[in-house]
Design a protein that fits this description.
Strand content: under 5%
Order of helices and strands: HH
Helix content: 55-70%
Radius of gyration: 20 Å
Number of strands: 0
Shape: elongated
């Protein structure tokens, strides 16, 4: 009986992980595009785009927050693909 398990090498594992991260980033980017379209639709239906207005649509506000969270996730995933010396700081803190 042949061994059905593949030998996992660090290079192969890194390549697979990199591909999975790239696929996830692509999927999340498409979600951001869909959320943006939904936000624009809600704003058009309500006739307002001012977040400070108390009558701003609750759904649009919720979708904006969701889009922001997905954007943060995309930035963190992109950091996983970049070597550590070129990584982008997503914490918002500046180094002295």
């Amino acid at each position: 009986m042949a061994n059905s398990y593949l030998i996992a090498t660090p290079r192969r594992t890194a390549a697979i992980t990199g591909l999975q991260i790239a696929t996830l980033i692509g999927s999340l980017s498409r979600s951001v595009e869909l959320l943006t379209a939904d936000i624009e639709r809600e704003e058009a239906l309500a006739g307002m785009r001012d977040l400070a207005d108390p009558a701003y649509p609750v759904l649009a506000r919720s979708l904006r927050k969701r889009r922001e969270n997905i954007g943060t996730t995309i930035a963190m995933l992109e950091n996983l693909r970049v070597p550590n010396d070129h990584a982008v700081d997503t914490t918002g803190h500046e180094e002295a």
